[in-house]
Specification:
The structure holds 2 protein chains of 2 kinds.
Chain A (H helix, E strand, L loop, with lengths): L2 E5 L2 E4 L5 E8 L5 E7 L5 E9 L2 E4 L6 E6 L2 E6 L8 E8 L8 E2 L3 E5 L1
Parallel strand pairs in A: 2-11
Antiparallel strand pairs in A: 1-3, 3-8, 4-5, 4-9, 5-6, 7-8, 9-10, 9-11
Chain B lengths: L3 E2 L4 E5 L4 E3 L2 E2 L6 E8 L6 E7 L7 E2 L2 E6 L4 E6 L8 E9 L9 E2 L3 E6 L1
Parallel strand pairs in B: 2-12
Antiparallel strand pairs in B: 1-4, 3-9, 5-6, 5-10, 7-8, 8-9, 10-11, 10-12
The chains are: A mainly beta, B mainly beta.
Amino acid sequence: SQTIHQWPATLVQPVGSPLSLECTVEGTSNPNLYWYRQAAGRGLQLLFYSVGIGQISSEVPQNLSASRPQDRQFILSSKKLLLSDSGFYLCAWTRRGLNLPLHFGNGTRLTVT
Amino acid sequence: AQKITQTQPGMFVQEKEAVTLDCTYDTSDQSYGLFWYKQPSSGEMIFLIYQGSYDEQNATEGRYSLNFQKARKSANLVISASQLGDSAMYFCAMREGQDTSYGKLTFGQGTILTVHP
């Protein structure tokens, strides 16, 4: 069966510090991968998605970047965090198909102080 | 324009009763899929149910059913026989046919459901 791992679960970082969140998927190959962000009590905003190694699409211009160095690894980064980067970050994967749901990791709660 | 609209920020229901969570969507694609997710306070996202635009019958999964009204562009989630464990945030999401290969979902703002004993 497929599983998705996302870490860390919580993170407190000062403004101006770098960020690296990692997500890996097991049990499948060539998945589509996604990073979403959720502000407190709000909906999910798609940040980046990837359909293959090295292929990154950005949905929202911002202070963040994403990379996919390996087939089942997706990394979210920032060189200098802003207060507005605080939120709940969720990684997800899916196979291609109109009816196939996204499968989410457990999320990372990021607080920028 | 919002692609997914959930107009109920919060809903309350008595245990064992049924509740309907509203969702309307906006797309010009003829082919699309609609999804509902549950997010407990722990933050995990749990997939509940799927409805395709060409499905002739309303989707059902256990106590969850979807009231799909294509002409009105609505896809309301019905939870029957509510349980205390149903208390959570619920999200409606859509995948447009043009995005099938990309797979991305657009989410609504969510509805917080509270089940009272």
